[in-house]
């Protein structure tokens, strides 16, 4: 199923990244950090991040610097540790409540190929447009038939539902794969797209996020400026998110909030 929304409030954590005439996507982690694929930095020298909130609210932030995951290797057909971080020159105003951090996994758990997953794609150049595509996960055994060197627990392969009817399965590098956790009933960023092709017989390759949570904490990318006690917007007709509260049992991650459907 493919759906198009005339609005950004369905995915207020999704951003466009621009540089050298190219575009990638990423997700907001906190007021200063955006997560994307390391492959994005091979396509461009990122210069600006475009954030889209409520109608008419488009914010462009300059890039202060970007970091590749220390274990990233691009020489494989299936890149390992394909994650990168962007530090913004100015913080995102999360208190306006129309831009939110994405929810990410917080607990070690096996990935279930039966989970319901989606990929979101933002319109370009300030367009208030959002495309949502339902995808199905493949086993690593099936994935490796198309993408050699894929690794269990590190890579993730998905195919678009009704892909035989589609003309292309190309999505921007860094697009988030959002999956529904059947145990917590929350939607989380399970992975970020590394490679995709127009040919829909080839699955979309992504890097799993869960193995890299400790790296995000060490960098400080999860330190959040939006607190659970902050009040939600109450404007008539505005979607009210479920606010997921995450606390780190080791005290490494301050309690923060992220966007949920429902």
Automatic annotation (TrEMBL):
Family, as annotated: Belongs to the peptidase S1 family. Snake venom subfamily.
Pfam family, one: Trypsin
Sorted UniProt keywords: Disulfide bond
Organism field: Notechis scutatus (mainland tiger snake)
PROSITE patterns (alphabetical): TRYPSIN_DOM
All residue ranges annotated as the Peptidase S1 domain in the record: 1-221
GO cellular component term of the entry, any: extracellular region
GO biological process: proteolysis
Record's protein name: Neurotrypsin-like
Residue span of region Disordered: 229-262
Cross-referenced InterPro entries: Peptidase_S1_PA, Peptidase_S1_PA_chymotrypsin, Peptidase_S1A, Trypsin_dom
Taxonomic lineage: Eukaryota, Metazoa, Chordata, Craniata, Vertebrata
SUPFAM superfamilies: Trypsin-like serine proteases
Gene Ontology terms, MF aspect: serine-type endopeptidase activity
Chain intervals with Polar residues compositional bias: 252-262
Disulfide bond is among the record's keywords: yes
């Amino acid at each position: 199923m493919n759906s198009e929304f005339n609005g950004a409030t369905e995915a207020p954590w999704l951003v466009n990244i621009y540089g050298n005439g190219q575009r990638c996507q990423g997700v907001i982690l906190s007021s200063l950090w955006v997560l994307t694929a390391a492959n994005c930095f091979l396509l461009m020298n990122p210069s600006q991040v475009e954030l889209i909130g409520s109608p008419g609210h488009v914010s462009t932030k300059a890039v202060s610097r970007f970091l590749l995951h220390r274990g990233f290797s691009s020489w494989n057909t299936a890149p390992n540790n394909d994650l990168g971080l962007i530090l913004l020159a100015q913080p995102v105003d999360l208190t306006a409540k129309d831009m939110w951090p994405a929810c990410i996994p917080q607990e070690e758990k096996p990935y279930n190929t039966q989970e319901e997953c989606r990929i979101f794609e933002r319109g370009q150049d300030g367009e208030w447009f959002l495309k949502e595509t339902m995808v199905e996960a493949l086993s690593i055994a099936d994935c490796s038939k198309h993408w050699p060197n894929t690794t269990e627990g590190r890579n993730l392969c998905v195919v678009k539902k009704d892909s035989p009817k589609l003309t292309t399965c190309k999505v921007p590098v860094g697009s988030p794969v959002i999956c529904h956790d059947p145990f917590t009933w929350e939607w989380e960023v399970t992975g970020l797209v590394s490679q995709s092709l127009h040919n829909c017989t080839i699955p979309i390759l992504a890097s799993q996020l869960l193995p890299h949570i400790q790296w995000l904490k060490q960098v400080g990318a999860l330190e959040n400026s939006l607190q659970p006690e902050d009040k939600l917007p109450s404007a008539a007709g505005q979607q009210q998110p479920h606010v997921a509260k995450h606390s780190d049992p080791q005290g490494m991650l301050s309690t923060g909030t992220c966007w949920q459907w429902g």
